[in-house]
Amino acid sequence: MMKLRFKKYIALLPIFLFLMGCGDSLTLTNVNPNEPNRVPVPTLLIKAQNSLIHHLRDNSYAGGSALLWMEYLSHTNYTNEDRYAMDDNTNASRWSDIYLDLMDLREIEVINNDPLRRAEAQLFGDSDNQIAVARILKSWVFMVLTESYGPIPYYSYGNSNEAFQALDARGGLLSPTYADAREVYLDILNELREAADMIHEDRIAFSSGDNIFQGNALKWKRLANSLILRGALRISRALPEVAAEVIQKALASGVMESNEDSALFESDVVAANASPFYRAFAVENRSDFAVAKPFVDLLKGSIGPFGQVDPRLYYYAAPIEALAIGNSGALITKGDYIPTATDELGLGIYQVDHYEGMPYGLGSVFTSRIGIERTSLPNVPVQANFANTVMAYSEVAFILSEWNNWDDTYYKRGVEASLERWGVSSVYRKPYIADLETANEERVLTQKYIALYMQPFNSWAEYRRTGFPKTLVKPGEVSFMDLDGVLNEQGETEQGKAYVFTSMVPDVQDDLPYRMRYSNKESFLNPAGYKKGLDLLNGPDLMSTKVWWDID
To answer: Rounded to the nearest 5 degrees, what angle is found at the Cα of 514, between the Cα atoms of 102 and 182?
Structure first.
């Protein structure tokens, strides 16, 4: 039934887009306040869920920024973005796209608060629950945006703060102001608290159109409280008392308890609605991403704090033989080599030496010499129906481990939940967990990093908060190349030929980027708002300017 619902409402998207129109930026949103569009709330919801996953997790935006910066993936060619030179046009288009997606969620709230239209929404579920779901999803997205950029145009449900009205297009707000990032973050936590509290657990939220929880109100409530844990931990060094208070309330209200509560958006097997990386590899015939060598080596246990092969290696990455010929003749992988419970990991095609990561931070001349035929491409994430994660139970367990002074029980629960979520059989889960040493800061946070594969913006924010993992290659450090010794200026080392990772962004030369620059269109499409954002940023619009909670 979930697949049928997904296809039914995705089929309505072209009609929806025609009705809503689209602009080149947030400032060009085309909404006629005198002619409300009669788009049913399930269509608004599934459109927003699907679009947000594609806009936040595709090969252009995520794959041109945080997926690379956190060294989960590496480009096989054209490696400027690996070296932090994010494409300005992609940044601008995604800024616009994401705000248009947020407008869809805002419309769900508008319909449910309109006495003339509320009855339409109630045909599909409880009005309070529908509003709460919209608020939760908006809060998740706004959290990603403010963590990535700092001050942003922001909207808060029912809030009279003039700086929190960025989605109020019906009120004629065409040039939204930017809101202070600290105030935005605190309001996000409040939005999540209020959304969780307004949910009626015994009533359906959406009878159709919800591809994350299929309308289960209790699971939406647990997601809201779990997102509070994420956000509170993020600001715990800057505002420890606030973090402690909101965490206690979230725990009392109820957070995720198992993988059954994880918020996953499973894409459709139909190519048009398939997962972002399936579309990139199998539809667009791209072959420009391999799994990065530092990540593969961490999973192999050759670097990092674990010293054993992580069975997720065989799911995260494909063996170098896992190649198929696309229509264009490009070499691609389609997730064809995913172990089953009967496969013996470490043997045959699943031997560890069949997995090689692309050395990170190299110039294109070097990556092209190595070639994709000799490196591991992504595996499970390239499946058509791959389930992208909004938040998983494993993250909740790691948060609770940290919050309870690196509790070992929660730590092991987090590892097991991640292994299970990725399909690792209990035959391999149990011995791996049994061999893990007792929890400490580095082990918990490195396992959290491993579990956040394909959740790049969350992982990037965690790195800025904690400084973990310690396995990332940073600018000025040597990225070793030992795949038949690619020649370069640096000479020989014990590990082979060496290359120094050099950032292409002048102000980012000794660490990862601290933030993204604003869309390059904002300065002329919304000059007053952009100026306000710069004033609130407390620094220049550079990738080296820290966001407010990023303190040492």
So the answer is: 55
The conformation of residue 270, written as its DSSP 8-state character, comes to S
Helices and strands, number each (H, E), in the chain: 21, 9
pLDDT beyond 60 at 343: yes
pLDDT value for 372: 81
The stretch 510-537 carries a mean pLDDT of: 95
**Are the C-beta atoms of residues 430 and 40 closer than 8 Å to each other?**
no
Query: How confident is the model at residue 333, as a pLDDT?
Result: 65
Residue type, 220: W
Domain ranges of the chain: 276-384
Q: Could you identify the residue written with the tokens 């995520």?
A: 62
Burial classification of residue 437, based on how many CB atoms lie within 10 Å of its CB (0-12 exposed, 13-18 middle, 19 or more buried): exposed
Whole-prediction pTM: 0.91
Neighbours of 429 (CB within 10 A): 17
The phi, psi pair for 479, rounded to 5°, reads -105, 110
Nearest to 519 by CA among 99, 69, 209, 39: 99
Token output for 143: 């959290």
Give the confidence band of 469 by pLDDT, cuts at 50, 70, 90. Answer: very high
At 394, phi and psi to the nearest 5?
-55, -40
Strand ranges inside 243-380, DSSP E: 263-266, 289-291, 324-325, 331-332
> Burial code of 200-221, b = ≥16 C-beta within 10 A, e = fewer?
beeebbbebbbbbbbbbbebbb
* Position 4 confidence tier, pLDDT thresholds 50, 70, 90: very low
